[in-house]
Design brief:
Elements: E1 2-5, H1 6-11, H2 13-21, E2 26-30, E3 33-38, H3 49-60, H4 82-94
Parallel strand pairs: 1-2
Antiparallel strand pairs: 2-3
Length: about 100
């Protein structure tokens, strides 16, 4: 376990992140008072930020999982040809 001041942490953040990733606990202090801990993620923590955020939304009840999962990819919607989209865009810009 290491203790590091906020200024030192800011100046050498990469080094302390590597230490935490390696399993060491880094205590962050401000005027000799512990204000935070930098630790490696738990084993059950999602590996991507978006997955972790979704898990938090599900845990707090702000989102609900789907009742049933669809088979395969959703059907693709047809869109207008590029030439048509560009002409509509040009018309919209002429109004300005």
């Amino acid at each position: 376990m290491r203790a590091v001041g906020v200024k030192e942490l800011r100046d050498h953040l990469s080094e302390y992140v590597r230490l935490a990733h390696g399993g060491e606990v880094v205590l962050v202090t401000d005027r000799d008072r512990v204000v935070a801990e930098l630790v490696a993620p738990r084993a059950d923590r999602a590996s991507s930020v978006s997955d972790a955020r979704m898990a938090e939304l599900l845990r707090t009840g702000l989102a609900r999982p789907p009742l049933c999962l669809p088979e395969g990819a959703p059907p693709r919607l047809r869109i207008a040809p590029t030439a048509s989209l560009l002409s509509e865009l040009e018309e919209d810009r002429e109004d300005r």
